[in-house]
Amino acid sequence: MTRTSTTWARSRRPRRPRPRGGGGGLTQGFSAPPSPSAAGPTSAPSQPAKAPAKAPQVSAADDAKRRATERAAELQELARSESAAKSLRFVEDERGLVVLVPVELSETSVLSNYTVPVIESSLPDGLPPALLKTLTGRSIDFAVKVEFFSEVFVDAQPLNRPKFEERAKEIDLGGTKVKALEVLAPRLGIGTLLRLGSTNVFVSRRPDAPLPAELLLSLLKS
What we know:
Residues 1-72 are annotated as: Disordered. The chain is an alpha+beta fold and 222 residues long. The chain has six helices and nine strands, in the order H-H-E-E-H-H-E-E-E-H-E-E-E-E-H.
């Protein structure tokens, strides 16, 4: 074979493809899957929303029992009011009436009937209707015994014996010296706490208002 034919034969041999890039191997041209550590943080599985708590079911029997209890309380209150209305004592003065009500200071639903700033077209139960004509435009107040100092308030706090002794003033009540202090009766309003010996009386008038001595002394000395 001549030189020329030899050269031509070499030129006809197929050439092996040269690898591209920096690396070879079977994975050439493919990217390896990311390692677990390289992957982004996996989100925690979402927790199912909690169902709202259901309100306790009230049975028909429980509802009937509640209604019966409320009705019994109403009837008891009504009976108490009627009983008190039959035993009222009162006195009239230039300001109106002061009514002695035979209940406790805590019985606000009864006593509130006898706290009338301005009398208009009617009088509370137990008072003679004939008084309406002369009392129209005036007021009605009440007086009641008080067993404990803490039943009334001073400075938004229940009253106690030391504070009463410190703040009470001595006044003349129909010729008798008594101690008096302006106080608040819860749910009833401002009034005066009078004390004679160990007996306390609340009257729903301030200390500078007229105080019917005979009626109040009858309570304080009883």
